[in-house]
């Protein structure tokens, strides 16, 4: 999509508001013409050469009136500008967010969260800025045409002698801003690297210390800072130089006008009023050139920003970004037909049988993943997925739950195919504990509930089943303990059991645990499975594990190897039939 189409679609999103804004800013830019003419009339009146017969006081009153009118116009312009640009920005953010929320959870954004935030914030701002500046162009050009006409009529020679060199100087300076953009981008990037390094250092103090890597980390940090210093100096020197050209252009222009005017006034062909008009318009003409330049720069930056925003869509058409949609996400989520039936998890058809047929997902980056996997679970069964490291266990679970976009195969819930597993496999149909728990800097209680309206009794039951009760008793504030950023105040096992409690507090037909045992001792894991079966006798469980505590309890074990199912059966059958399984089983002991 071209930058122009992108900008035009943004403009057309709220045409009424845009036109109101356009009218406001055109009038604001045209408004200085009037005080210029009044100032001329004032001095001409004092000199006695005025063409009109207004008194000095009435001219002063008109000047005050013009100033008040311009203030009122500017106030109006800011209101319309804020309304227009924020709506455009919110449309972009809304469409982006809506797309990200509909992407499979494990691949929702193609960049780091920090970068995604900067796209949402800075690139959307850039688009707003370009759209907002587009309204100024008309008013500024209008002012240029009218003021040139007036000045040319007063004194064509002087107009050309003053304004042509001025326009050339300012335009040349403006062209240099292309270089400024380059330096600005480089300095921003260098700053982002320094900030990133600081946040990495703070997050990994322990890892740096145990690896004895302080000196190297500091040396790398110094290098990043040195690069930042160099790019910043270039950026600042360029910015200051250009600013001084713009500031001095007005002074130079005034000097030129004074020199020429003195000569012409002696001849009697130029009045004091003419002089005041030339000086008055000079400032606006200089501003105008630099503002048109600014708009061109914003327009160029918009090309980059639109490209970055489109990259967040991961291949979906860029037109999605500017699709006209009502701004609130919740009320207008596209829920239709089959999607609505699948997505609305209020009426749950009890799980009798879950089938996975020919499921395939291969990571484009590595060519690894799962291929043609067939699995079947029945109500109340306990199925364990096992296999060597990297054999595809997590990928299978994530593709089944719609956290990764399957490339082929189908998933059937009681024989009915599920089109959008990401929307379907949510509580109360299914609940999931990921291999690496995601916790927040909040109370332990809130980390478990995540806003779910469970009773205290239900919460305590989930805590007990997740074998977290004793740990909570040892915490000073119990369930109300704040667990620090990413749950740093908890041990690995506590964090995993907190995630398990988060899952268990929710009603679900299907519970999916991804390698819960990696941070649990054998005894705690045994207690967890026992507790789960005590409170949820008919729960269907799909568990990734290579622990005997899980394997010996399994109704069916699925052995994965290189992304495919190598063998399936009970522990007894597999011990007799599968060499890989025997290795896994004995490997543990
Ligand atoms: N985000 C990713 N991008 C690219 N390749 C990946 C990604 N995640 C996993 N893989 C690859 O896919 C394969 C299967 O990984 P997966 O995490 O499913 O294995 P696993 O059996 O769950 O391993 P583990 O026991 O270590 O958790 C591995 O070879 C891995 O290198």
From TrEMBL:
Signal peptide: none
Major place of residence: membrane
Residue stretches making up the ABC transmembrane type-1 domain: 30-301
UniProt-recorded Gene Ontology molecular function terms: ATP binding
Keywords carried by this UniProt record: ATP-binding, Membrane, Nucleotide-binding, Transmembrane, Transmembrane helix
Gene3D superfamilies referenced in this protein's UniProt entry, alphabetically: ABC transporter type 1, transmembrane domain, P-loop containing nucleotide triphosphate hydrolases
Pfam families (UniProt xref): ABC_membrane, ABC_tran
Membrane topology: Multi-pass membrane protein
Transmembrane segments: 16-34, 54-79, 130-152, 158-178, 237-263, 278-299
Family annotation (InterPro entries): AAA+_ATPase, ABC1_TM_dom, ABC1_TM_sf, ABC_transporter-like_ATP-bd, P-loop_NTPase, Type_1_exporter
Subcellular location: Cell membrane
Domain ABC transporter span(s) in chain numbering: 354-587
The name this protein goes by in its record: ABC transporter ATP-binding protein
Organism per entry: Paenibacillus thermoaerophilus
């Amino acid at each position: 999509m071209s930058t122009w189409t992108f900008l035009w679609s943004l403009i057309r999103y709220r045409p009424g508001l845009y036109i109101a804004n356009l009218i406001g800013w055109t009038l604001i830019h045209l408004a200085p013409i009037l005080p210029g003419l009044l100032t001329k009339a004032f001095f001409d009146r004092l000199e006695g050469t005025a063409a009109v017969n207004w008194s000095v006081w009435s001219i002063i009153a008109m000047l005050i009136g013009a100033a008040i009118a311009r203030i009122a116009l500017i106030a109006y312009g800011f209101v319309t500008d804020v309304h227009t640009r924020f709506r455009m920005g919110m449309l972009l953010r809304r469409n982006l967010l809506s797309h990200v929320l509909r992407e499979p959870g494990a691949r929702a954004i193609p960049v780091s969260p920090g970068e995604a935030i900067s796209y949402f914030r800075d690139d959307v701002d850039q688009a707003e800025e370009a759209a907002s500046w587009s309204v100024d162009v008309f008013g500024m050009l209008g002012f240029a045409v009218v003021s040139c006409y007036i000045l040319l009529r007063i004194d064509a020679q002087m107009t050309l002698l003053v304004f042509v060199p001025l326009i050339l100087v300012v335009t040349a300076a403006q062209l240099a801003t292309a270089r400024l953009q380059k330096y600005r981008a480089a300095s921003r990037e260098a700053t982002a690297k320094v900030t990133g390094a600081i946040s990495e250092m703070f997050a990994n103090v322990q890892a740096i210390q145990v690896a004895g890597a302080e000196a190297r980390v500091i040396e790398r940090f110094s290098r990043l800072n040195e690069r930042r210093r160099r790019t910043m100096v270039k950026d600042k020197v360029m910015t200051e130089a250009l600013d001084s050209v713009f500031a001095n252009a007005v002074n130079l222009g005034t000097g030129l006008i004074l020199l020429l005017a003195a000569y012409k006034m002696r001849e009697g062909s130029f009045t004091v009023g003419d002089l005041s008009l030339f000086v008055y318009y000079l400032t606006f003409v200089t501003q105008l050139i630099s503002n048109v330049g600014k708009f061109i720069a914003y327009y160029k930056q918009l090309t980059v920003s639109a490209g970055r925003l489109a990259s967040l869509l991961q291949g979906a058409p860029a037109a999605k970004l500017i699709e006209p949609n009502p701004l609130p996400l919740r009320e207008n989520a596209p829920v239709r037909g089959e999607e609505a039936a699948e997505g609305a998890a209020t009426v749950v058809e009890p799980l009798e049988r879950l089938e996975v047929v020919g499921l395939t997902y291969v990571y484009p980056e590595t060519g690894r993943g799962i291929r043609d996997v067939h699995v079947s679970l029945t109500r109340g069964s306990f199925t364990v997925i096992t296999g060597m490291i990297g054999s595809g266990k997590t990928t299978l679970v994530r593709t089944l739950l719609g956290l990764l976009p399957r490339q082929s195969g189908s998933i059937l819930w009681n024989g009915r195919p599920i089109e959008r597993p990401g929307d379907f496999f949510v509580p109360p149909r299914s609940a999931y504990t990921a291999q690496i728990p995601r916790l927040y800097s909040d109370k332990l209680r809130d980390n478990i509930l995540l806003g779910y309206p469970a009773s205290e009794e239900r919460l305590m039951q989930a805590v007990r089943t997740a074998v977290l009760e004793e740990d909570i008793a040892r915490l000073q504030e119990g369930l109300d303990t704040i667990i620090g950023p990413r749950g740093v105040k908890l041990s690995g096992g506590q964090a995993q059991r907190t995630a398990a409690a988060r899952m268990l507090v929710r009603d679900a037909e299907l519970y999916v645990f991804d390698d819960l045992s990696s941070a649990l001792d054998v005894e705690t894991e045994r207690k967890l499975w026992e507790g789960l079966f005590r409170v949820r006798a008919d729960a269907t469980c799909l568990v990734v594990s290579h622990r005997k505590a899980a394997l010996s309890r399994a109704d069916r074990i699925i052995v994965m190897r290189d992304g495919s199912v190598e063998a399936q059966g009970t522990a007894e059958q597999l011990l007799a039939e599968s060499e890989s399984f025997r290795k896994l089983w004995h490997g543990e002991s």
